[in-house]
UniProtKB/TrEMBL annotation:
Residues 28-47 bind DNA. It comes from the Bacteria. The keyword Cytoplasm does not apply. Residues 5-65 form the HTH tetR-type domain. SUPFAM superfamilies: Homeodomain-like, Tetracyclin repressor-like, C-terminal domain. This is TetR/AcrR family transcriptional regulator. InterPro entries: Homeodomain-like_sf (IPR009057), HTH_TetR (IPR001647), Tet_transcr_reg_TetR-rel_C_sf (IPR036271), TetR_C (IPR011075). Keywords: DNA-binding, Transcription, Transcription regulation. The keyword DNA-binding applies.
Amino acid sequence: MSKAERTREFIVEKTAPIFNVKGYAGTSISDLTEATGLTKGSIYGNFENKDEVALAAFDCNYKKISSYLKAEMDKHSSYKEKLLVHASFYENFFKAPFPDGGCPILNTAIEADDTHPQLRERASEAITSWKSKIMELIKKGIDNKEFRSDVQLEQTAISLIALIEGGIMIAKLTGKLNYRKLIMQSVEKAINDLT
């Protein structure tokens, strides 16, 4: 890795949590310089603009969550167990490995849906990828006779995502952690009902 690549990676790692907590609009250049200890010139010498830093920060936060979720699923052999990891994983979204601020997909989607087309597209791609991965798990579970053959793949996958993200939003908004637990129990029930 070149010095420039290491510097870019350093900037992204230091600023990703800030973007996830404050959002794009709320994150200032002084937040970036304070987090990195670099000058504005150094940051913009490595990134064209704040948009480019924000997109890289989203990718960093999303990759952390995706990698950890995959590692947890890899610990299980059945497709049902792999799907159930989603409920336990997202029930603990206030703890590591989640970046400060919680789920970057939810945070970015809420802020950028009407204000930042590039970030909105990035969050949309993340949802689409997540949906595809869940659909693949369900399909393999059907092929393996773990799930009913009449399960609607896309409907089930997007419904599970909506429950998870909605649960995170409601728990964060109200501060009532028991809501998160109740909704993740609904996610578990929906997965158990696939059999």
